[in-house]
Amino acid sequence: MTGDAASREGRETAELAVWFGGASLGCWLCCPFWALVAFVALPLALAGLVRARVEHRAAREARASRARALTGGALSLLGAAAALAYLVFLATHPDLPVQE
User: Fold this and answer.
1) Are 64 and 55 in contact (CB under 8 A)?
2) CB 64 within 8 A of CB 58
3) What is the pLDDT of residue 47?
């Protein structure tokens, strides 16, 4: 594999944390069924957090962008926090009807 192909591959994989984090937040903005979204957004956010950690390690070796890793981590953290907060809210308010 040439150096140019390796750097292009590194850039393409370096954006996965941003995609996972953005997808977890996008679920909250685009779907009105929040009870269902919480079960989709949380796994996406957790995958984004793991991927952000991998990309941050790669950034130390100059194989990925540190800014993208941090952005993906921040987006994923927001998506995970929103999902967990909503699930805790549902668990502590059993008398509320859940959206269907």
Assistant:
1) yes
2) yes
3) 92
